[in-house]
Design goal:
There is one protein chain. Helix 6 crosses helix 9, helix 7 (232-241) packs across helix 8 and helix 10 (377-395) crosses helix 13 (475-490). This protein is of the alpha/beta class. It has helices at 37-44, 50-65, 86-96, 116-128, 145-178, 208-223, 232-241, 254-261, 309-321, 377-395, 411-437, 443-469, 475-490, 496-504; strands at 29-34, 69-75, 102-104, 132-134, 139-140, 191-195, 202-206, 269-272, 275-282, 285-292, 297-300, 341-343, 350-353, 362-365, 375-376, 507-513, 529-534. The protein is globular and about 100 Å long. The longest helix has 34 residues, at 145-178.
Length: 544
Amino acid sequence: MRSPPRRRPSQILTSGVIPINTLDPSGAYCAYLRKSRRDAELEALGQGETLARHEQQLRELAARLGIRIAAAYREIVSGDTIAERPEMRRLLADVSAGLWHGVLVMDVDRLARGDSIDQGMIMQTMLYACVLVVTPGKIYDPADDADAEFFELKLFLSRREYVAINRRMQRGRLASAMDGCYMGSRPVYGYERVKCQGRRGWTLRPVPDKAEIVRAVFGWYADGMDGREAGAALIAARLNAMGLRTDLGHPFEASYIRRMLQNPAYIGKTRWLQRETTYAIDDGRRVKRRLPSDRALLVDGLHPGIVDPALYERVQAMFAAHDKRPKNAMAAVANPLAGLVYCAECGRAMQLKGDPARRAGFLSCRTQGCPTCSTSVDVVVGVVLDVLRAWVAGHEAAPIAPAPAAGGVSGTAARARMAAHLSALLEQSDRLYDLLERGLYDDRTYLERRARLDAQLRDARAALAAIDARPAADPVAAAVPQARRVLDAYACAPDPAAQNALLRSVIARIVYAKLRRCYRGSAPTDHLRLTVYPRVPSAPVDPD
C-alpha cells in the first residue's frame, strides 16, 4: 500500500490562492462531479450542462496547482445515500485501494449530503487513505486535526441545508397535490403531461386515440369480450395482438392492466402519498422500504376524466368481489429456487406456478408472450444439484486457491494502483529531462536522480509484470467446499425455505433457457439449458 509523505496542514484561503506546496505534483488526482437540485434549475434557465462546466473549472484549478486530473467520476443519478450513488461507491473503493493522492470537487457538500453514517464513511475513507480533498476555496487534509474538524462541520451543515430544502419541497408538493396538480413524473396511459396555465405545477391532457383504448379496456373488463368474461391477462393479450404498446414501448402485461383499471386518474382524480419511504436498520445496514401510507390523499384533479364514473365504480366493485388472498410477505418460501432462476429471453425472474401442496409446481416466465417454456421445479432442482456434483467431482483433487489475507487488496486493485504508480514515475522522468534542459540541474545531480528513478521504474515494471503473471484463481474451485456442504445438507433440509437458503449460499444466479416443449416420449430435460453462476465473480459454468 502506498505510504504518502506527511503533508503540511492546509489553510483557509484569504487571498484566493491555494497553497501549492500542500500538493505533490507527481501524485495521482481525480475529480468527483455531481449535480445538485439547484444545478438542474440553472440548466433549465440556459446556464449550460453542469457536469461539463464543473469539470472544466476543476481542470483549470488543477492546472493552476501544477497537478493533473487523471480520471473523473461523473454522478448522473440523484441519490440521498452512498448506496444509491454508484460513482461514489467506485470512488471510495479506488481511494481505499490507494489509487489517488487527492480528490478534486467543487464543494464538500457535493461529496455527501446523506446522514451521519454516510458522512462518517466518506470521512474515514479519506482519512485512512491519507487523501486530500481539494476544492476551489480550500484544501482539506483529513490527517490534520483542524482540517478534519472543519471537514466534518461542512458535511454537517450541508446535511442540515439538505434537510431544510427537502422539507420545503415536500410541503410544496403536498400543496400542489391538494390543489389537484398531477404529481407523477410520467403520465398515465391515455394522457400527456402538460404545464398548468397561469400557475406552477403539472396536469394531464387526454390523448384522443389512447383515451379510446382506455375506455375499451374498462368496457371489456366490466362487460366481457367476444361474449365471455375478460380478465386482465386476456385484455393484455388482445392489446398486444393489435400491435399496441405502452408509453415506454413495452408489451402490455396483466399487472399493467390491473393498475390501469384501479387508477382514479381516469375519472379526474389525483392521488398522492399512496406509499411512503421508510428506513430501518437490518444487520447494520440502512434498508429503504416503500410501504402503504396512512396519509393517502385523493382529491379532484385539474384534468378531465376519460372514463365514466359509473363504469369505473363497477370495475372497482368487481375487483373487491374477487376472492383473492393478499400476498403475505412473511409467508413461507414454497420454491427452493426462489430468486435464483432468470429467463434467458426477457431477463425476468422465473416464478413457481401451481399448488406445491398437491404436487410439484412448474417454473414459468411471467412475461406476457415470452416464448420460454415451463419445466417442473423438481426437474430443474435435479439439474442444479447435478451441476453442483459436477463441480465437486471435477475439483475434488484440485487445490483450492487460498483466500486473500485480511486487509489485502484484490489483484485488480493492486494492478490499477501499480499502473498508476508507474504512470506517475514516467511523468516524473519526463520532467527530469525538462529540468536538465532548463539548467536547473547540473550533470551530477541529474545523473544521481536519473539512476534512482531508473531503479524505481525497473521495480515498478517488475511488480506489474509479476501481478500480470499471477495465475487467476478458479472461481468454481473456490465454491467447491461450500457446494460439498450444500449437497450433504440438502436432502436433510426440512422445507423449501431451508433448501433455498442452501442453494443461495453457493449460487448467485441461474439463467434458464428452453424454447421447445417436451412431449410424450421425450425426457423432461430435453431442450432445457441452465447456466449456473457461482457466488463469486466468475464466468458461467454450463452443465454438459
